[in-house]
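Re-run with default settings, no changes from the original entry. Doing this only to confirm the output is reproducible before filing.
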Amino acid sequence: MARLDLNKYQTHLVLGLIIAFTLFGLWIRALPASTIVTDAGVNLLGNDPWYHVRQVEHLLENFPRYAWFDPMTHFPDGEVVYWGPLFNYIIAGLCILFGAGTRPEIMYISCWVPALMGAAMVPIMYLIGAAIADRKTGVLAAGFITVVGGTYFYRSIFGFVDHHIGEVLFGTIFVLAYIAALAYSRRHPVDLRSTETLMMPGALALLAGFAYFLGILVMPTMALYALIVAVFTLIQFLWDFHAGRSSDYLLVLNAGVFAVAILGIFALGIPHASLSIAQYSIMHVYIYLLALAGTIGLYTLGIVLKGRAAYFYPASVAGIAVVGTAAVALAVPDFYTYLVGNFVSFFGSEAITLTVQEAQPWSYDHAWRAFHWSLPLMAGGFVALVYRSWREESPALVFGLVWSGVMLVSTIAKVRYEYYLAANVALLAAVFIGFVLNAGWKDVRALISARTAPKSVPDAPPADARQKPSKKERKSKKQQKAVGRKGPDHLRVAAVAVVAVLGVLFVAFSLTTAVALASSPGLGGIDSQWREALDWFGENTPDPGIDYYGFYEREAFDYPPGAYGVMSWWDYGHWITFVSQRIPNSNPFQRGVAGPTGSAAYFMSPTEEAANAILDDRGSRYVITDFLMANPGSKFWAMATWANSTAGTAPYLDRFLTASPTDPGTYNAVSLNTQEYYETMVARLHIYDGSMAEPDSVWYIEYRDAAAARTSLPVITRAQQMNASAAADAAAAYNKNAPAGQHATIVSNTVYQPLEPVPALQHYRLVFESSRNVLSGSGQDAPDIRYVKIFEYVPGARISGEGIIELPLVTSTGREFTYRQESVNGEFVVPYATSGGPESVTAKGPYRIAGTTMVFEVSEEDIQQGRTIR
């Protein structure tokens, strides 16, 4: 029977596998389309994708002009766009190609781009794997990148219209181009004195530079790859000098890459005037010039020290680095400070930025959830690359090692870079498996052959043919038997089995997680309650006077007199811009969040006067809240941390240990609200609708200090639910004669039961609330609190009087509540009109001072003009 020679069809098999992986990767990334596509458009995932589609809409209206400034967010300053145009140009080009003109059509086309880019990573990874190892490694890398999970997969699925996958794709294309240039130069040595040897390496260098520039056009953080090149260049120059090799190829390659990068930055126009590496500033030119100068310096130093002892070169490099750094710090201290600051901000973190998920450091738990069984394969890949780099002295292998190492360090510092690391995980896993297979596959085949070979007994020779063999023949047969007795190396067979199992587990877990994620109905996007609120908001509030599709230059722009801002938490800024076409004061770029007039300070303000001063400064007319913002276990923590990174939630929550009801020997940590929580603006608005609130039932607790109890937190020794005033008296009495290390206090375990009276807000009126009661099913005593609420900031009308004034109200959802306010200095300042106000929240009668017959009618004009009612 003829035996099939697979080697003859290897190219076709590899091509078929790459096509299959690519199509399969596209298919699993397209699964969300079945749940997020509607006739009205696509419920885009997350926050930033909404702004990217807003940019695409704007780009299509002003094509080919790209706006570096947007007045439709971060009122009253507007937003400087700090990422590049390439990702949005690709989407806009596809929209033009396919004739997408309506918002639903533009959204639909946009959603395919991340999935297509994720699929495009498959052939790129194959080429990298094949370049630094062999076809087998390339196929494995292509297969692994198809299913690798973590943030990489989420950011490459249908609906996540963000430039993150574009950063990975074009960064990886640059890596491929750089490795290809290194590989060619190794096969065809470069000599600066020979023009013929410079032609192709020079062309490849320019191609790598162009690939780098494409990455820069997606995001300024492409500068991370410049750092990778710099680290690799230093290591390779040291190695080349030690080995006595020429480094001409490094000079040619880096000169081509950074020359193109510098020219590209100038061609882009340097739209940002800062010195930040995170923006398209002149700092990029300085960095690339520095990298180029460093390459030239290392090359020149190698020529000068040629023939010297091996230690001269690294010692000289270290000395020059120290002296050069000191010289820069002394000669141009501002530049040095900017340089160090950029580096620290790139890899470091602060308390407030830790509230942003992608700025948090990479924990082991997060790493395992993202990459699980690929982690040991990745570790093995590092070892294999180190071993092969040492044995083969291949610059391409060294570059792959440095690339992976820098990405790992970056990811450990900030989880944001996890989606970059996915390419390295796929590559390193493939390298390790390929390395082990190359080392042990012959032994596996030998073991299989030994177990499957038929056992046969040779025919006995005829009697007349039997004769005693010669001495030489007997010796030869003994040698053959000795060779035949040498079986497969079982240790290598076991290694192949282990990496095969790990590879299968990696693919199985990744694929299961990916399909489950992509098929999940709760992937993200705008909550139905927010959509309901923002649709109403866009249709029932004044136009801010800014053309949503208008093209504005930052230097020549001023907001018109009627423009206003919308105060909400930064998570929701892009939704407000895209859906309502209104201008948020803060946005998911964390702009307008920090500082004394930021959204965090506003929502944590302990007095209405302080909050009003912020709205006046930021030109805000409306405030939008949701229950997550007011929930101490949710976004409230982030707002408190942004407002005061040192104190965090400490003023608003007390944390204790309490004995477990099922196991008294163990303790559970609990967080209980203090009065300061109920006095924050976010609680007063969202929980109490701006009305005054009075205490009812609270918790009286006695506790032992953490030091006295020798625990991490204070330990509750007694807890009793009591009337607020009685509990306050009991706590005061206990603390007068409390034993050392023991105390008493009052706290609340609900968001709606304050410990002391909370005054009403005088200048905020509810104008809309969404339909869902978040506390539905929490018991009869739980109030009706809707998920999203919109308030208008108004001057308010003044009414003379003493006591408590009341106004019964009903919202468009049918919820009825009473606005109550206690007089201050013989006066009320009321925010609701009894007639002529918004139809979504209406008064059921006039204002009445409780316990009297005094009633007051207040018109909408009275509210807006701040009139005094007599």
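Residues 481-485 have pLDDT under 50 and may be disordered. The chain has four domains: 14-162+377-450+489-525, 163-347, 528-532+557-747, 794-869.
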